[in-house]
Amino acid sequence: MKNTTLGILTLAALSEPMVAQERVDVEPYLKMRPNVVMIYADDLGFGDLECYGAKGVRTPNVNRLSENGVRFTNAHAVAATSTPSRYSLLTGQYPWRKAGTDVAAGNAGMIIAPEQMTVADVFKEAGYRTAAFGKWHLGLGAETGKQDWNAPITPALADIGFDYSYIMAATADRVPCVFIENGEVANYDPSAPIYVNYNKNFEGEPTGASNPELCYNLKSSHGHDQSIVNGIGRIGYMKGGGKALWKDENIADSITVHAVDFIKENREAPFFMYFATNDVHVPRFPHPRFRGQSEMGLRGDAIVQFDWSVGEIVRALEEQGLLENTVIILTSDNGPVLDDGYVDQAEELVGEHSPTGGLRGGKYSAYEGGTRVPFIVHWPAVIKEQAVKHALVSQIDFLDVMARIAGVGNGEARSTDGMPGEVATWFGNDEKGRAFAMGMAQNHTLTLRTESWKFIEPKGGAAMIPWGPKIETGYSTTPQLFKQVNGTFDETHNVAPEHPAIVEQLSTLLEQIRRGNFQ
């Protein structure tokens, strides 16, 4: 969006008091060429971190970032599922503007086209070294299902701005279960060529459905019963891999070690790192050294493992003398889910902990728990004391805010939908934030958030997620309008019948944004 105004709406300002923040004019710092580390968690809910009120789990490394940075309480992913959120974060374009941005198969073709602008391109333009680690889930290769996993894959991340990449093609619950390093299978084993198919199994290969006894590490609760790798059923069929196959308990170590090496190797030049973890996403199978470190079983222990990775990144920056002038942003791709396909006792052991921090819904949902996520900004050179901000923030602005930080673009928007002016909210003294934030549920229901109101468009659909997770969808055939009460939205009382004018205004605005003609 470019220079947007909301003349049709009267927006009430937040009235809650905020922790004081030192008044910093961010403009003088925009030429400091800081390193930037985006830590992008997977399925980590608004309430899943200790500094956001989590119970039964400790996250001291994340707490440290919060205690020396800015913790946002009203930040949103663009979508309530992974692939569309990641697409929007990296491109600054809403996912409904491009076909193929729904949750991707492990053999999906690359969703971001090489000619598209990405945040990595922005940093490359500024002379930065760029790298991506961990979960990708945005496709590889020119065409879905046509990749040759035994040869270099093109296009790959080098074609969209990343100098180095060590990634998972999709997520840990989808094949192929190998790391891809710079477009090729890492530790490739020529004695076990890799074949992937998302339509049918390979002859003679066991599956979780036909051979559940082979799922010795985790059993399926729903779905996830196709090819078996490391004693865990997956989505999709895979044959081969040999020594290249990952062990789930080592995924966090693998991506963290590679990220730390990148920091050490690039300590003399500015760099941008996209560090995307898998820990909290199923299958949750943390390393044995993290087992029993929470009160919530495997899901809680996976959060502890995530916190360890954060600590290792921060420690590496400190040891290289880089922490002071490194921007660290920590957030999540969407809201949380407990049972998402494996028997890991996430529901049974959650106890008094609320993964959404008391918000309604969760992953997949149109309700607030689907897109409101943790969001912490840490930059010691600029942020001199702890702050809590209630400003409305959206991940759609990441590319344009980073362009400002990198010093490219003369302050003009580089993306389709982002707002470069949000740099003052993220790092400076602007406490107001965005005028609105868009969200997209799993079935493409769109939501529109302002400071005072939340509108969910009438699209229809099941009231509960139909395939297993016990999550309310928020879908309805009638408009839903919720009003902010005491700093949050009361999503139990639909006030649309009481405010038809507001419904009409927000519905009109949502449609303008959807069509891309909002001025």
Mean pLDDT: 94
CATH class value: Alpha Beta
Give the C-alpha Rg: 22 Å
Shape: globular
Describe it for me?
- It is built from nine helices and 20 strands.
- The chain is of the alpha/beta class.
- The protein has one domain (35-427): Alkaline Phosphatase, subunit A (3-Layer(aba) Sandwich).
- The strands form four sheets. Strands 1, 2, 3, 4, 5, 6, 11, 12, 13, 14 and 15 form an eleven-stranded mixed β-sheet that branches. The chain has a five-stranded antiparallel β-sheet with strand order 16-17-18-19-20, covered by helices on one side. Strands 7-10 form a two-stranded antiparallel sheet.
- Strand 5 (179-181) and strand 6 form a beta hairpin.
- Helix 4 packs parallel to helix 5 (297-319).
- It is globular and about 60 Å long.
- The chain starts with 34 loop residues before the first strand and ends with a helix.
- Residues 1-23 have low confidence and may be disordered.
How would the blueprint of this fold be written?
Elements: E1 35-41, H1 60-67, E2 70-76, H2 82-91, H3 119-125, E3 129-135, E4 164-168, E5 179-181, E6 184-185, E7 195-197, E8 228-229, E9 232-233, E10 237-239, H4 251-265, E11 271-276, H5 297-319, E12 326-332, H6 368-371, E13 372-378, E14 387-389, E15 393-394, H7 398-406, H8 423-427, E16 437-440, E17 446-449, E18 453-456, E19 480-485, E20 488-489, H9 500-515
Parallel strand pairs: 1-11, 1-12, 2-14, 2-15, 3-4, 3-11
Antiparallel strand pairs: 2-13, 4-5, 5-6, 7-10, 8-9, 12-13, 16-17, 17-18, 18-19, 19-20
